[in-house]
Structure formats: C-alpha cells, structure tokens
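## retry 2 of 3
previous attempt timed out at serialization; input unchanged, resubmitting
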Amino acid sequence: MMTTNRFVTLTQGEFHATRDPVVLSTVLGSCVAVCLHDPESGVGGMNHFLLPDGGKSMDARSDRYGVNAMEQLINALLRLGARRGALVAKAFGGANMSPRLAPIGDGNARFARQFLATEGINCIAESLGGTNARRVHFWPQTGKAQQMIVPGIVDDPTAPIEPLFRPNVTLF
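## retry succeeded, writing output
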C-alpha cells in the first residue's frame, strides 16, 4: 500500500510538531528553519523564525523570534513523546538576500548554531548563509530533508531571468 503524505506549509512565526506522515514545507530567505527529529520515537517538527530575539520589543515573546520558536518546538516534541537527548537537528536559511540590506541572515544563522550547541542538540546537517532563498521539505517521521535553491535577486535589470527553481535538489 502506498502512503501519500500531506503537505503542511509553514510561514514566519510558525512551527509544527507531529508524529503523522506529513511533509513540512517552507520558503526561507534571511529567516531560518530548524528541523528537529527524534529517530527513536519517529517524532519531528520544524519552525520558521524571522529574527533571533525581540530585544525590548513589546511582542518579544512572539514565535517570530528564534529564542521562542526553538523552545516552542522542543516543548511540543517532548509532549509528543520525543526524548530531548535523542533530538537531532537540520538547519536551513539565513541568506543575506541583498547587499543593500543589513546581514540579518548571518545573525539568524549564528543564533541557530549557538542555540543548538548550548542545548546540546546535535546539528547533523545545515545549509545556512549565502545569498539565495531556499524551499525546504522535511519529513518529520524519518528526519529526511530536501532543499531546493531559489535564484537570488538580480539588481541588474538587463540580466537574464533565471527559472524559478534550479534543477539541483539537495537531500539531507
């Protein structure tokens, strides 16, 4: 019997933890998505955060911030039966989309690496940094991840237009 997975799309400030046969999907520029998986229990999830933290902002508890998004995802996985010591991570995003903008992606990538190291969660694969957006698919039951690179923004209006997705797909 063939199983068809349902897609769950995440946007900024969202996370999803599950043991169900779904595919979690998101598109990232400077944002970061961390995929967590417990291979022993088959529980996994993904978040999508905009900035490392909210500083002194009124909504600093928002899930748009990495510090909250990571805690929310870990706690949801533990409630589903994951064991904290068994969690492994895959991290994506953190691109600096334009030289005209602040390097927000660098800060997001640095935060993700530091958070995972501080929490003792092994990051077994990452694709962080660069200048291109990414579409990421994650299978939380198995921990498999797939990334497709989206061409970067071209500041030269005479440059040829690239196809929406490059043909290369990377599996993690």
